[in-house]
Structure formats: structure tokens, C-alpha cells
Specification:
Blueprint lengths: L2 H19 L9 H4 L3 H14 L11 E4 L3 H5 L5 E6 L5 H12 L3 E9 L3 E4 L2 E4 L3 E8 L12
Antiparallel strand pairs: 1-2, 2-6, 3-6, 4-5
């Protein structure tokens, strides 16, 4: 190897060392860090654990309304309350929403999926929406005041 070739390789090595030694300004990330989403997901999960919340942040997205019917009002004697709930929730989420809104723990929850009825207006045939009903049983002595003024 000639003298000229050695100088070029030494210059390349020194240039590489200078490039590696360059300090990036604060706040600038490399491409791998910019596109890494695991840290953001982990941060979001940590925030959710700290808040101790479930899938739905607000309980009004789970409990749509109390069901006010003659049969539902008669169930209050047995400490059972009836609610219309979102179609995609389960018993655990309903129990958490009841506790979040009313501050009482449910002993038992029965869930009923109700199919929408078919309706006719002349020749036009339609269908009402499907909905879900939850019957919440509370412990003896605990009440929810939802039927006042009805």
C-alpha cells in the first residue's frame, strides 16, 4: 500500500471518529427513537393503572339510562335495579360503572340482550335497535335513588 492510500484511509477513519463523536443537540432523537412506539404504549398503560380506570373513562358510556317500567319498579323490593347499558360491555364493566356513579357495590349482575322488534309502516319493513339490559342486585340495606320524582 502506498503512502497516498494510507493517508486516505487514515483520513476516513478520523472523519468517522469525528462523526461518531458529534454530540446531538438536546431534544433531537435518532430515527429509531422517533418511530419507537413501545415507550408511548408503556406510558399510556402506566397512566391508566395509576388512575385505576377501566375501558370506558366515563361511566355514562356504560350506563345509558335507568329502565323505568312497572316490572323494574317492583324489583326494587328485592334490591334489584334495572339499567339500559351499552351493547359491548360486560358484567365487570357494569359493576365498576355502578360503583363509580352511585358508590355502591353490586353483589350480582344479570345481563339480557334484547333483540329489536321488526316494525312495518305500510309496505316498508324496518327493525328497531338491539339493546342490552342489566339487572343489578345490591346488598341488603344499600339503595340507589334513581326513581325519585317518577
Amino acid at each position: 500500500m502506498g503512502l497516498f492510500a494510507r493517508k486516505k484511509t487514515e483520513e476516513k477513519k478520523s472523519d468517522l471518529a469525528v462523526k461518531k463523536a458529534k454530540v446531538k443537540p438536546a431534544g433531537v432523537k435518532n430515527m429509531k427513537e422517533l418511530y419507537d412506539t413501545t415507550q408511548a404504549v408503556n406510558d399510556k398503560q402506566a397512566v391508566l393503572k395509576n388512575k385505576k380506570i377501566f375501558k370506558y373513562v366515563q361511566a355514562y358510556q356504560v350506563l345509558l339510562k335507568p329502565l323505568v317500567t312497572e316490572k323494574a319498579t317492583n324489583l326494587i323490593v328485592n334490591n334489584k335495579y334495572v339499567f339500559v347499558v351499552a351493547n359491548n360491555v360486560n358484567k365487570v364493566e357494569i359493576a365498576k360503572a355502578i360503583y363509580q356513579v352511585y358508590g355502591v357495590k353490586a353483589i350480582k349482575i344479570n345481563v339480557i340482550n334484547t333483540m329489536g322488534k321488526t316494525t312495518k309502516r305500510g309496505k316498508i319493513v324496518g327493525k328497531r335497535k338491539d339493546w342490552k339490559k342489566a339487572i343489578v342486585t345490591l346488598a341488603a340495606g344499600e339503595t340507589i335513588k334513581i326513581y325519585e320524582g317518577v
